[in-house]
Write a structure and sequence with these properties.
about 160 residues; 6 helices; about 60% helix
């Protein structure tokens, strides 16, 4: 979990998240890095689905390959939303861990409230990010091989 990341976004910068909380959730055969990798993978898979749904709602894109391309093309723009979602998944893991016992106590209500707040922040950031994507200038939609007729359905006329 240590090291530097290009985005500058670190999970332990989110409220109520620290590596020590994850340490309490690991078993002898699992280390913190493995647990974090599992949480991160789950969050990324969920984020991909959320992104595709939001891109479809906002820009009426229904081509999965074009959506995936657009996700990769805009990863810096989407980083904050993913950051909040990973935080939400960490809180989900904390609230539902089988490792919690009388000696490892948490306030489940507080953890669930924080999870919901982080998830709501993710959705808001995702909506803002997707609204700012200009799909008409995206390489994902300009190549005729990348897009087929009806992959992008536009209901709005260009302003200019």
């Amino acid at each position: 979990m240590s090291g530097t990341v290009p985005s500058g976004l670190y999970c332990d910068a989110l409220p109520d998240i620290s590596e020590s909380y994850l340490t309490k959730l690991v078993t002898d055969e699992t280390d913190v890095n493995t647990l974090y990798a599992e949480i991160e993978k789950r969050a990324i898979l969920k984020f991909r689905t959320l992104f595709i749904r939001q891109l479809n709602e906002t820009h009426k894109v229904n081509n999965i390959d074009a959506c995936t391309c657009c996700l990769c093309e805009n990863k810096e723009l989407l980083a904050t939303a993913l950051w909040y979602l990973i935080g939400s998944e960490i809180m989900y893991t904390r609230a539902n861990s089988s490792r919690l016992n009388a000696y490892t106590t948490i306030d489940k209500k507080k953890v669930n409230e924080m999870r919901e707040e982080l998830y709501a922040a993710c959705i808001k950031e995702l909506e803002i990010a997707v609204n700012s994507i200009d799909i008409h200038s995206s390489a994902c939609f300009t190549c005729k091989d990348n897009i087929k007729e009806n992959d992008v359905i536009s209901f709005h006329e260009p302003i200019i």
